[in-house]
Amino acid sequence: MSAADGGGGGGASNLVVDHATLTRVADQLGQAGSAFDSVGTSRPGAGGTGQAEPLLLMILAAASDAAARLSFESTTIAAAVEDCNSTVATVDAHEAASFLINGVGTDG
How many domains does the chain have? Predict the structure, then answer.
């Protein structure tokens, strides 16, 4: 299966991953998304701004929408990083076990 098929390719890779760093990145992205989302629980109103009120409401709506998307994407990326980290750690452990038992990795 190739990357074009949605399988991410196959075979050996020279990918070197620091699992602690990826865990920290995922945690920080998740915390940033949550913190950003919590800030959005309050926003200024546009009441009492006269003729500018419709324009201010549109600006506030656009900013709120962008903030919600940013928060969502941050937590989504954090989950993807953690999933990738977990997958690489699992494959690393499997390859190490295969090497210890068979003297070679699973790919050769």
Answer: 1
3-state secondary structure the chain: CCHHHCCCCCCCCCCCCCHHHHHHHHHHHHHHHHHHHHHCCCCCCCCCCHHHHHHHHHHHHHHHHHHHHHHHHHHHHHHHHHHHHHHHHHHHHHHHHHHHHHCCCCCC
Tell me whether residue 107 is in a domain: no
pLDDT (tens digit per residue) in 19-34: 899 899 999 999 988 8
Residue 2 tokens read as 């190739």
Q: Is the whole-model pTM more than 0.90?
A: no
Domain membership of residue 3 (yes or no) is: no
Per the structure, the complete domain to which residue 56 belongs is given by 25-33+52-102
Q: Residue 31: phi, psi to the nearest 5?
A: -65, -40
Tokens 């998304």 locate to 33
